[in-house]
Give the backbone structure.
Amino acid sequence: MAVVFDAEKVPDITLFSSGTPNGIKIPITLEELGLTYKTVKIDMAKNTQKEPWFLEINPNGRIPALTDTFSDGEQIRLFESGSIMQYLVEQYDTKHMISYPKGSRLSYEVNNWLFFMNAGVGPMQGQANHFHRYAPEKIQYGVDRYQNETRRLYGVLEKQLAKSTSGYIVGSKCTIADIAHWGWVHAAFWAGIEIDEFPHLKAWEARMLARPAVNKGRNIPDRDRMPELAANKELAESSAREASKWVMKGQETDARK
C-alpha cells in the first residue's frame, strides 16, 4: 500500500550532526525549507557516534542522522546524507523550493548529481583530507592519488556550471544537488585543493554562501571555521594535529571490533 504524503505535515525532526562537510548538508537543507527542528551535537572527538544509543539511529556510527515522526505516527530514522535529503524534500518540499516534481526529468538529474557527490566527491575528498591532514606519516602516493581524483571531479562540476544559465548545478535554482556539494567545495583548501583553478566552481561556492539558509546552516551545530583556518596556516596545522589524534584513535577502536 502506497504511503500518502501529507502536504500539511508538521515536522518532529531531531538532527544529530557535527560541523563537517557532510554534517552541514542537513541543517542547510532544513533552513532552506524553513522547517523547525531540534539539534543534538555529536562530539566525534569523544566517539559519541559509536555509543549504543546513537547506533540505534545509525548502525554505521556516522553523522549526520535524523529522526522524525512518520505518517504512521511512529518514529522513523534516517541516516546517510543523501537519504536524509531525499526524505526531507519528498516529505516537506511540496512547493519544490529546492527540488523538482518527483518523476520529472530534472528530478532525475538532481539524483544524478546527488549520487555523484555521495559516491565521488565526498569519498575522494575525504581521503584527500586524511592523507593531507591526518595521516601519522606522509604517504605521497595517497596524497597525490586522492587530490588528483578530487581535482578531476571538481573539473566535472566546473564544466557543468560553465554550461548553467542559472549558476546552479541543475536547472533554474538551487537544489539539494548544490547543497550536497557545497560544504566540500567550501573546504577545498583543507584537502590541499586550490579552488582558483576552477573559476565557475569558485563563483558558485560564493553564490551559495550568499544564501541566508546556507550562511545559517553552515554554523549548525558548530561555528564554521573553514574561512578562519584558510587564512591562518599555523592555526590550520595545529587544528589538523588535534583532529588527527581522535581520527587515529577512532580508527584503532574500529579495527579492534
